[in-house]
């Protein structure tokens, strides 16, 4: 996937058609936009959770992109692919999941469209209010610390359980990710960069490396089960050394674990392996 | 499709999650948003035209939604589903089509994402600058004239040719729709409503009927091959009687045929048959 995506972006950029691609979302004036697909086959299998929970997660992962830029979600558009064999009850479950997520995140659904398809698919566009300072992926400097918030690894564990035919509790982070807008808002002025972990820490580090033309050295070895775990939606933070104690204090105040694991250095970094959906 | 879409929208509206659904796009402050999927299987077959032309059309039909509200397209986000078996050459063709359309319509692609899938699919979100007066679907009054612009019917003819295994010239309206932003801009102050014809005149009339709680009487019988022809992207106009001569003059100035065919009356209207993609 990555090579074809890179080719697409490269061709588009050469033509002058695109710019700004690379962050979770893009800021234009006072608004931030993000668009992420969440599709059967690529991102989930239908039996993994109820349709209501799936729909909720589909919006939540898009909201995560806005939070990760320190923006406040306001509006959403949805292009929904509904399987041809869906009953009225199934359509209602989808609607309920979307409605619950809209309420939980304070988002109004303002438009979009629906099509019949062989697979279930959500493509949300989120529109958010930018804050004074937008958190971005570019701006990292040599010596900056890399850290992740909270707990990482549960998502891959949940996925493994599902792939083996097991079931997850509805409290599982894989079903309902933990988002941390208040923590992000308070930290942003002291950070040099940040993003949410959707494709696993290793792969997000590769993205940071490419965008910032820097590499990393790991101060703590990251086990594969952590580094490869995608769909975590915890935050990956780029912390300038002089603000490290400030960031630690904010994390403590929010009772959120902060795990420092690498520092930026000259060079480049490539992930040792692909994320779970390639 | 229509029943499931209606159920979805109804459930979402009851929950308070959504509003404003019904127009081609939605205006929020000075911006107008539109989102439309263009998917293999539902909207096209891959062999119907080159990948470059397909990608161009995918953006054009979204631009049409903004023009139909008298808005100027500025930015686009794209969620692109790329078939797993696509070669680098095929990805490049897609990029070229997108780039050409971006240039033709003055749109900058600012973000989105790509996923691997079994089918090719484009889901664009367009962001446009609203004009002083936005053209909408609501506002029709009894006695108003309905008219369509240009030539309608070619798209269904083109589709029929393709479904029979024939080929279309690259000049075909089915491949490259004719959009009329200048005409729309000049007419908007004198219109009571308008929309582009994406699902056929009959079905668009049904939409107008539902939104405005009015029916129609046909002053000129519309042959099925015209009324059912979708993906025309000509305009359907709602003209107050007092402005009819003004609208006629503007159409003449732009050398665009104007076909009056119905007037609004009390009651409701239901399309005699479905469009080609349901």
TrEMBL record, chains A, B:
Coiled coil: none annotated. GO terms for molecular function: ATP binding; magnesium ion binding; thiamine-phosphate kinase activity. It comes from the Bacteria. This is Thiamine-monophosphate kinase. InterPro entries: PurM-like_C_sf, PurM-like_N, PurM-like_N_sf, ThiL-like. Reaction mechanism of ThiL seems to utilize a direct, inline transfer of the gamma-phosphate of ATP to TMP rather than a phosphorylated enzyme intermediate. Gene3D superfamilies: PurM-like C-terminal domain (3.90.650.10), PurM-like, N-terminal domain (3.30.1330.10). It comes from Wolinella succinogenes (strain ATCC 29543 / DSM 1740 / CCUG 13145 / JCM 31913 / LMG 7466 / NCTC 11488 / FDC 602W). SUPFAM superfamilies: PurM C-terminal domain-like, PurM N-terminal domain-like. Belongs to the thiamine-monophosphate kinase family. ATP binds at residues 112-113, 137, 198. Mg(2+) 3 binds at residues 24, 65, 196. Pathway: Cofactor biosynthesis; thiamine diphosphate biosynthesis; thiamine diphosphate from thiamine phosphate: step 1/1. It catalyses: thiamine phosphate + ATP = thiamine diphosphate + ADP. Keywords: ATP-binding, Kinase, Magnesium, Metal-binding, Nucleotide-binding, Thiamine biosynthesis, Transferase. HAMAP family: TMP_kinase (MF_02128). Catalyzes the ATP-dependent phosphorylation of thiamine-monophosphate (TMP) to form thiamine-pyrophosphate (TPP), the active form of vitamin B1. Mg(2+) 2 binds at residues 36, 65. It is an enzyme of class 2 (transferase). Residues 27-126 form the PurM-like N-terminal domain. Substrate binds at residues 43, 231. Mg(2+) 4 binds at residues 24, 65. The gene is THIL.
């Amino acid at each position: 996937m990555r090579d074809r995506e890179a080719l697409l972006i490269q061709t588009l950029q050469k033509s002058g058609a695109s710019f700004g691609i690379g962050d979770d979302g893009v800021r234009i004036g006072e608004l931030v936009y993000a668009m992420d697909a969440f599709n059967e086959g690529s991102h989930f299998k239908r039996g993994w959770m109820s349709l209501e929970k799936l729909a909720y997660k589909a919006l939540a992962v898009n909201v995560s992109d806005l939070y990760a830029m320190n923006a406040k979600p306001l509006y959403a558009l949805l292009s929904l692919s509904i399987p041809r064999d869906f009953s009225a009850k199934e359509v209602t479950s989808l609607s309920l999941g979307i409605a619950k997520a809209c309420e939980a995140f304070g988002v109004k659904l303002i438009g979009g469209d629906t099509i019949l398809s062989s697979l279930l698919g959500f493509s949300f566009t989120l529109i958010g209010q930018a804050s004074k300072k937008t958190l971005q992926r570019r701006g990292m400097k040599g010596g900056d610390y890399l850290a992740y918030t909270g707990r990482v690894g549960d998502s891959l564990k949940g996925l493994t359980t599902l792939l083996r035919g097991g079931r997850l509790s509805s409290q599982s982070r894989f079903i309902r990710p933990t988002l941390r807008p208040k923590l992000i808002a308070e930290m942003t002025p002291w950070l040099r960069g940040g993003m949410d972990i959707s494709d696993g820490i290793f792969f997000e580090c590769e993205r940071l490396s490419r965008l910032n033309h820097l590499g990393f050295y790991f101060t703590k070895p990251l086990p594969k089960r952590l580094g490869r775990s995608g769909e975590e939606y915890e935050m990956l933070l780029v912390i300038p050394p002089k603000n490290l104690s400030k960031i630690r204090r904010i994390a403590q105040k929010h009772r959120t674990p902060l795990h420092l694991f690498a520092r930026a250095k000259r060079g480049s970094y490539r992930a040792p392996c692909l994320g779970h959906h390639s």
